[in-house]
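User: Please predict the structure of the protein below. I'd like the answer in structure-token form so I can feed it into my own downstream comparison script.

Assistant: Understood. Taking the following sequence of 374 residues as input:
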Amino acid sequence: MQAKGGAIATCRYGIYRLNEYKDYHLKTGNYKYKYFINKVNMVLPLILGAAALGAGLFGTKKGVDAASAHSKAKNLQREAQEVYKRSEFQLNSSRQVTAETLEHLGQLKLEVWDEQLGRFVKLYEQLKNVELTGQANTGEFNAANFTRDELAQMKDIALKAHEVVLGGASAVGAGALAGIASYGGAIMFASASTGTAISTLAGAAATNATLAWFGGGSLVAGGWGMAGGMFVLGGIVAGPIFAVGGMLMAAKATENLAKARSYKAEADKVAKEMEKAISVLDAINKVAKKFDEVIMRLSTAMTAELDGLESIIIDSGTNYAKYNQLQKRQVHLLVQFAQVLKLLLETPLLTKDSALDESSTKALKQGQSFLGES
């Protein structure tokens, strides 16, 4: 509006000066400019109109540019929110799939500690004069290295696992089951004494933000206990990802194009971090499924061997020294089953940063090798 008014005022001033020029020459009798001045009078209104139109178009363009910038800002902010929502949905989907796999593996580990290893401890403790040297070993597991201390450790964890199974594994929560799958019974039961295993597992999961997240917790809900709202997944600090996401989703519609561009850049950055987290989850899910499969096969095979030892004790007593070679071989093989299963049940899948632990791959290969797989 100011530009339009300035242009019109300038043209009006020009008309005023030309009229003064015309009057002067008419008064002095100088008519040779008359024709020129009359022509100028005819053209000036057109000039004035054109100037006014140009000024109006300039003002209109500025208005259109402003409206366009506002529209771009809103579109960018909407795109930023959509990018975040899409990535968050994909991450939560991967989290759910991986959490279910870990929950199933955790449940299986508890059952194997209770049933197969618990039963092995009860039967092996009945045997007397056991001498495991001189027998052939299967794979990398040497039964001769099996000690009474190792048996005592098996017994301790088996009793705690039995308590949890007896009380219903669901009582400890999905996060605790994911913890047993991810970190092994020995670590999860580390501070538990008999009679407190369920509360210990539940407490360990509640104070570990990653396990709480696997158990269905939400950063937005703030239900992280001692974890302080921060957790790491394969070296990716996930807390800030969700914090930024919360900011993006809660932000009011902005008309500031620069701010909207900043939102979009932040959303793209967060989306890339979520993609990395999804890759970590997919890798964890893949390894956990393999552990589940190998442990299941080993536990099934070990059950048959336990039935065999039970029959030996019924038929031939508990004095190992009086067993024939076939019976001794049965005991020897059972010890190796216990060793390989204990390794798979205790080996952590994840590091403290919730990345895949390299030792898990080695343990998995040892279990597969024991089963005769390549």
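That's the full token string. The longest helix spans residues 34-124.
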